[in-house]
Design goal:
By secondary structure, the protein is an alpha/beta fold. Helices cover 50% and strands 12% of the residues. The chain is elongated and about 70 Å long. It is found in: Membrane.
């Protein structure tokens, strides 16, 4: 959901309307979310087997096996230990007495982990137009597609003017791909000028145009890069600085796209991107049958940054706000 606090009723009303555009889809497409985590669900099916014949005398063995099941499902060691230690404390205190109670407590524990430290999953656009959203991530994660879907959702509110910035000057086909999304969503676009290789000037020019022509939102694409390529990461930092120079206080959001199939590899990626540009939210993409859902809990647990959106398919409508309870229900059979 998009939410903003404002002293200006006009601007607050505008961005408040956008909130309803996203909220309507917050708990839809759950069946596809379930199928996207089918591999993780298979790995976690052992939880029901472990808890079916639960008895206190086997508590330690069961909890060890439960921890192993979480590790196999890409919950990182730190997060898996934290979850199981919390359950162990309640089991030994006789607060959890049945297998069903343990499973319910397990799911509640993961929901709490996804929500307590990370804060709001709302998209924060502020009160001043244009709002600027910078989208970052590694190669092939789905940044450009995410921008297209996000534009489509925002454009559902009649009259929203969106400007896309083709800041991926590294990949040859990136500009053309973003142009297709701009056409599909009836958005304007700023491209690199002939021979222009650096992305920062493209983003700066886009933000300045958005201010001059009173656009509502700028969606800034950036070059995909490995978190271990330090020169490209420095370039990404320059992109953020250029946006801030063109419009004080921008960007409003720095969204990092996470490929749901990469497992715990997403943790060092997210850590490095956050160190360089200050990630404000994650978008989880590529939820096919090989998606590894447990790693998301580890990323949120360690970095305290919320997942804001989940991609559940390739269509324009297939971007929904993240819902922690729906996510956990998708993980556990």
């Amino acid at each position: 959901m998009v939410r903003c606090a404002s002293s200006s009723s006009d601007k607050a009303g505008f961005f408040g309307k956008l909130g309803r555009v996203f909220k309507e889809k917050a708990k839809s497409d759950i069946d596809r979310l379930f199928s996207g985590f089918s591999k993780t669900r298979e790995n976690l099916a052992v939880v029901d087997e472990l808890l079916t014949y639960w008895n206190l005398s086997d508590a330690e063995k069961l909890l060890d096996e439960l921890e192993e099941a979480l590790l196999i499902s890409d919950f990182g060691p730190r997060t898996a230990i934290k979850i199981v230690d919390g359950l162990r404390k309640d089991v030994l205190a006789a607060k959890l007495k049945t297998g069903q109670e343990i499973k319910l407590a397990l799911k509640k524990s993961i929901v709490k982990l996804l929500t307590s430290r990370a804060g709001s999953t709302d998209l924060k656009l502020g009160t001043r137009r244009p709002a600027v959203i910078m989208v970052v991530g590694v190669n092939g994660g789905g940044k450009t597609t995410t921008i297209g879907k996000l534009a489509h959702r925002l454009k559902k509110e009649k009259g929203v003017k969106i400007l896309m910035a083709a800041g991926d000057t590294f990949r040859a086909a990136a500009k053309e791909q973003l142009e297709v999304w701009a056409e599909r969503t009836e958005s304007d676009i700023v491209r690199a000028e002939e021979g222009q290789k650096k992305p920062a000037p493209v983003l700066s020019r886009a933000v300045k145009r958005a201010v001059a022509e009173k656009f509502d939102i700028v969606l800034a694409d950036t070059s995909g890069r490995l978190h271990t390529n330090f020169s490209l990461m420095d370039e990404l930092e320059d992109c953020k600085k250029a946006i801030g120079k063109a419009l004080a206080g921008a960007p409003n959001e720095v969204l990092m796209v996470l490929d749901g199939t990469t497992g715990l590899n997403m943790l060092p990626q997210a850590r490095e991107f956050n160190d360089v540009v200050g990630v404000t939210g994650f978008v989880l993409t590529k939820l096919d049958g090989t998606a590894r859902g447990g790693c998301v809990a580890s990323v949120v647990d360690e970095l305290g940054i919320p997942v804001k959106f989940v991609g559940v398919g390739e269509g324009l409508e297939d971007l929904q706000p993240f819902d922690a309870e729906a996510f956990v229900n998708a993980l556990f059979p």
